[in-house]
Amino acid sequence: MTTSIDIARRIAEVNHPLSRESVHALAEILVCKKYRKGEIVLQAGEVCKAMLFIEKGMLRQFYYKYDKDLTEHIGYENGMIICIESYFKQEPTRLMVETLETSVVWELPRVEVEKLIDQYRDIERLYRGFIEHSLIESQIKADTLRFEPAHKRYDKLLQLHPEILKRAPLVYIASLLQMTPETLSRVRSSLL
């Protein structure tokens, strides 16, 4: 069984090295949650009170626009999910988070993380790294969607996140890439 210490070490390995003391302090605040496939982790209208580290499984962030379900982000093992505006403003989110597979997720509660940031310089750097990574990923995605044709968007996803293409349902991949399932099918078949 994976312990909170194991997860704190994994978070540090993926993001930024931590001292032994900081790993233990981080492990103390982690909260493990297990979800079945298709469960809602965060509902629109709720406040995002924690960053989510994915130990196992796959989650997606999505929203509704004109009664259409649009995928914003898909995360999987060793990834983080955060509804960044809601998290920082502590206001209700318009995004939802659901599991695409049976998942084990570790919450890093905002209030507790902020206490650790005041105590541990390396945890502050780790936190800053999370936020920087999230913002950079958002910018890359926005630029790709704005400036790249469908086949380039698919190629970039293949380069950066092949796991999404292997495991996520095609309808969500198409939505993530802002294309119709038919266009996604044409792009995929042109690469074979």
UniProtKB/TrEMBL annotation:
Identify this protein by name.
Answer: Crp/Fnr family transcriptional regulator
InterPro entries in the record:
cNMP-bd_dom, cNMP-bd_dom_sf, RmlC-like_jellyroll
Entry's Pfam families? cNMP_binding
Q: Where are the transmembrane segments?
A: none
Cited SMART domains: cNMP
Where in the sequence is the signal peptide annotated?
Answer: none
Give start and end of each Cyclic nucleotide-binding domain: 14-60
